[in-house]
Specification:
Catalyzes the methylthiolation of N6-(dimethylallyl)adenosine (i(6)A), leading to the formation of 2-methylthio-N6-(dimethylallyl)adenosine (ms(2)i(6)A) at position 37 in tRNAs that read codons beginning with uridine. One of its GO terms (molecular function) is 4 iron, 4 sulfur cluster binding. By secondary structure, this protein is an alpha/beta fold. It folds into three domains: 7-135, Rossmann fold (3-Layer(aba) Sandwich); 144-385, pyruvate-formate lyase- activating enzyme; 389-481, OB fold (Dihydrolipoamide Acetyltransferase, E2P) (Beta Barrel). Helix content is 34%, strand content 18%. The protein has helices at 16-31, 63-80, 91-96, 99-103, 119-129, 174-178, 186-198, 223-231, 252-260, 277-282, 289-302, 321-334, 361-384, 403-406, 465-476, 502-506; strands at 6-12, 34-36, 51-56, 85-90, 109-111, 133-135, 156-160, 162-163, 182-183, 203-207, 239-243, 267-269, 307-314, 338-343, 390-395, 408-413, 418-422, 435-439, 442-443, 448-450, 460-462. The strands form five sheets. The protein has a seven-stranded mixed beta sheet. It has a six-stranded parallel beta sheet with strand order 2-1-3-4-5-6, with helices on both faces. A three-stranded parallel beta sheet has the order 7-10-11, sandwiched between helices. Strand 10 (203-207), helix 8 and strand 11 form a beta-alpha-beta unit.
């Protein structure tokens, strides 16, 4: 490693869409000649990277405070290293634009959600002109998947099927920051998945703000179910997941596709937001609690072992104790395996920010605590029911904080539950990306423990190409360096897209 090598670091805040965007940002920087600072051996690693990129979120109230706090912490390093550059992108950049440079004048580049691909040029322009560059596009320049990518995982990958959202939920600022929904052609999505599988990926997650409205741009309301079935035809693809659907647009053809496609996993993230029909109406969520529970009933009828997770907001303006009681009722009836729970916070620019009857913090906190207590009870009961069952686990590099001291490994079951499992003495430890079949010995509130293999139970390992890909990276990495796959150059589009008959390819109508 020589002194002329430029290093970078990407700090990601927010959702899976942001995580995937950060992979694009890393790919762009690598293509422009930068090297991930974490990929440099300890002995050669510089104290600070040449470029730090913040990929921000604007959904939560503390998003801005978190960003400016980290920017403030970086200022001394920037002052001590004049050539260092700081860039801010993502949803908060799209929202605050030039205000970021006014509040933190040491920031060099601000770019929005629609022009991620401009980052290398903006960095060079800021360096050449010796002044901050703020560039925010109001509509998407290119679909993100056409950009180079530096994936975080050798065996698992994100695949965007759409960006943007056509809903108008009163609490959400995402549509104004990400724009209207833009869909990729099915053939492009499937081509990207096949390319990932050829690189050793065995699990993909389809991404969209609202995946089950996929097809709105090319006039096929059944496109998402067809896409799931087509994924089942890809040799070597072990697991398919997706996030997130919207209850209002969730249709039975998707349930059928999930149930009838073996590599589509029995896990579903279905955002509830509130169990009160009155609050759902105020949120502009175009479904009601009975419809929501009906969807879950049909999912479990076709997939009895499906694990269903959700999002819930507590303390929406005007929420009464009776409204909150409805949320508790639906939460208990839904039997969620886990829930992402949030206290409502005012987001400037959203309709809900102007609503009367904003609730006192103490009231919201007390309700939030009760919801957490109930969900903990529901999650624990569901996990205890799995004791004695056998689960197939996709091994990860480490999701358990105590894995080292307990000598366990970790991974995800088919239903996406986190599993910590013991490895029998005298056997070779499985590799991340391999599949292990183990027996569950204990269901904790937030994970499963599978120690059956060291207690006389069965133990089975199935090596995969994902495990091979992970192992190959370990051989290539420098001492102490982070190990990530090579940059993929994206999926370019040339000329008009040819018609893609996904239904014919997968045998569905």
């Amino acid at each position: 490693m020589t002194a002329t090598v430029k290093t970078y670091e990407v700090r990601t805040h927010g959702c899976q869409m942001n995580v995937h965007d950060s992979e694009r940002i890393a790919g762009l920087l690598e293509t422009a000649g930068y090297v991930d600072r974490a990929a440099v051996a300890f002995a050669d690693r510089p104290e600070h990277p040449d470029v730090v990129v913040f990929n921000t979120c604007a959904v939560r109230e503390n998003a801005a405070g978190k960003l400016y706090g980290q920017l403030g912490q970086l200022r001394p390093a920037k002052d001590a290293h004049p050539g260092m550059q700081i860039a801010v992108g993502g949803c908060l950049a799209q929202k605050d634009q030039g205000d970021i440079v006014q509040r933190a004048p040491w920031v060099d580049v601000v770019f929005g959600t629609h022009n991620v691909g401009s980052l290398p040029v903006l960095l060079e322009r800021a360096r050449h002109n010796a002044e901050a560059q703020v560039e925010i596009r109001e509509s998407l320049e290119v679909f993100p998947s056409t950009l180079p990518t530096r994936r975080d995982s050798a065996y698992s990958g994100w695949v965007s099927i759409s960006v943007g959202c056509n809903n108008t939920c009163t609490f959400c600022i995402v549509p104004s920051l990400r724009g209207k929904e833009k869909d990729r052609r099915p053939g492009d999505v499937l081509a990207e998945i096949r390319a990932l599988v050829e690189q050793g990926v065995v699990e993909i997650t389809l991404l969209g703000q609202n995946v089950n409205t996929y097809g709105v741009e090319f006039g096929d309301r059944l496109a998402f179910g067809k896409l799931l079935r087509a994924c089942g035809e890809i040799d070597g693809l072990e697991r398919v997941r997706f996030t997130s659907p919207h209850p209002a647009a969730f249709t039975d053809d998707v349930i059928d596709a999930m149930a009838e496609t073996p590599n589509v996993m029995p896990s579903l993230h279905m955002p509830l937001q509130s169990g009160s029909d009155r609050v759902l109406k105020a949120m502009r969520r175009s479904y009601r609690s009975a419809k929501f529970l009906g969807i879950l009933e049909r999912v479990r009828d076709r997939m009895p072992d499906a694990a269903i997770t959700t999002d819930i907001i507590v303390g929406f303006p005007g929420e009464t104790e009776e409204d909150f009681a409805e949320t508790l009722r639906v939460t208990r009836a839904a039997r969620f395996s886990s829930a992402f729970t949030f206290q409502y916070s005012i987001r400037p620019g959203t309709p809900a920010a102007e609503l009367p009857d904003q609730l006192p913090k103490a009231v919201v906190q007390e309700r939030f605590d009760r919801l957490i207590e109930l969900q903990e009870e529901v999650s624990w009961a569901g996990n205890r029911e799995l004791e004695g069952r056998t689960v197939e686990v996709l091994v990860s590099p480490g999701e358990g904080r105590k894995d080292a001291e307990t000598h366990r490994m970790s991974g995800r079951a088919r239903d996406n539950r986190l599993v910590h499992f013991a490895v029998p003495d005298g056997v070779e430890r499985p590799r991340p990306g391999d599949l292990v079949t183990v027996g569950v010995t204990y269901g904790a509130p937030h994970h499963l423990v599978a120690d059956a293999a060291v207690e006389g139970g069965g133990w089975q390992v199935r090596p995969t190409r994902g495990g091979d890909a992970w192992a190959a990276l370990q051989e290539q990495a420098a001492d102490g360096a982070t190990r990530k796959p090579a940059v993929a150059l994206g999926m370019p589009r040339i000329g008009a897209p040819a018609p893609v008959q996904v239904a014919d390819a997968c045998g569905c109508n």
